[in-house]
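Q: I'm writing up a methods section and want to include an example of the input and output format. Could you take the sequence below and give the corresponding predicted structure tokens, formatted cleanly so I can copy it straight into the document?
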Amino acid sequence: MKTSLCAGLTVLVLAFAITAPAAAQKPQAGATTNMEILKAKLKADKKLLVAQTVGLTDAEGKAF
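A: Here is the clean output for your methods example:
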């Protein structure tokens, strides 16, 4: 009886030890990470640089 209780407790502790770090690493739903913000800013800056360099009008830019 004691050994089965100890084995069951050991299995539970190991299962918790394995799943706890994985659960802690999941970002919250709807949370924006710094990397996502950086990617969006770089994309916008790239579009601005191309628009300024090429020198298209608004109508030409939309068609391009």
